[in-house]
Amino acid sequence: MILHKGEILFRQGDEGAFIYHIKSGLFKVTRLHENGNMVLFNILYPGEMVPHHSLISPKDIHGTAVALIRSEVETIPAQDWYRELNEDPKKPLEVAKLLQEKVRFMQERLDHLTVGTPAERLGLLEKWLKNHANGIPLTEYLTQEEIGQLIGVRRETVNRLLRGH
């Protein structure tokens, strides 16, 4: 399936009928909290199988995934995924490797959040996203608020940093 910028792959609360293999592109994953706060909490990139929390057993979808750029995704019926997980002795190791890769990504993102200045954090985010965004500038697919959430600063700080670029 091909999704274009702004199209939704899955929605928070969906029952999770599919596992998705991100072939190309980028997605932001947001979560709407009961108090009305919308938080960007993840970026999905090529090679990932999602939702991560449902790779071993089913669970309702935790957030909404929106395409940031043109993206290609393979959809796998969840029932087929879980049946194969039970029948193929190599599949659990494949899932463990996928989850290990995501943990390593999250460690890298945490390292980026603890690096010195906000400008350095913005630079690291831009560098990482450049690998997956086909040269599209970060500000064309993320808002200043979202960039701020990813680097741990307020929108006003992002605005100031971008003006200084």
UniProtKB/TrEMBL annotation:
Family annotation (PROSITE patterns): CNMP_BINDING_3
GO cellular component, one term: cytosol
Pfam families: cNMP_binding (PF00027)
GO molecular function: DNA-binding transcription factor activity
Record InterPro entries: cNMP-bd_dom (IPR000595), cNMP-bd_dom_sf (IPR018490), Env_Response_Regulators (IPR050397), RmlC-like_jellyroll (IPR014710), WH_DNA-bd_sf (IPR036390)
Keyword Nuclease belongs to the record: no
Alphabetic keyword roster: Activator
Keyword Transmembrane found: no
Gene3D superfamilies on file: Jelly Rolls (2.60.120.10)
Residue ranges occupied by any Cyclic nucleotide-binding domain in the UniProt entry: 1-74
Domain of life: Bacteria
Protein name: Crp/Fnr family transcriptional regulator
Source organism of this protein record: Paenibacillus anaericanus
